Fold this sequence. Notes:
Blueprint: H1 2-23, H2 28-55, H3 70-107, H4 112-139
Amino acid sequence: MLTFILPAIVVVALSLPLIKVFKGEASVNSAKKRLDLHISGVVGAAALVLFLGVANAPVFAAGSAITGTIAQGLGFLAAALATGMSALGAGIAVAAAAPAAIGAFSENAENFGRSLIFVALGEGVAIYGLLISILIINQL
């Protein structure tokens, strides 16, 4: 249970300062200060959880149910990062290209094909990341 909650808390804590920057309600400098505060809080909380978890952790005997190597774990982490970061990049690209495409299409109907290409190029980034993660997982 802790393995699902702790990463979710880290992602939320690190992305919260950026929301006001994207909305235009905060400057980049104030967001950096808040991000530093969030990072120090997340690191402190993670250290506390790890300390409490290590103190109460059961000792696994040889032949326990946990199998796999560190290389496999890092491979799955790399696949997750490839998919997640490419989806994030594709979202940013489509968020910038789609309003411009709608504006160009509303002014001239002949711009539909060109604007559709630019939006599809942004969405293609997510597909490339997913393809890379599939290739990584197939190599494990």
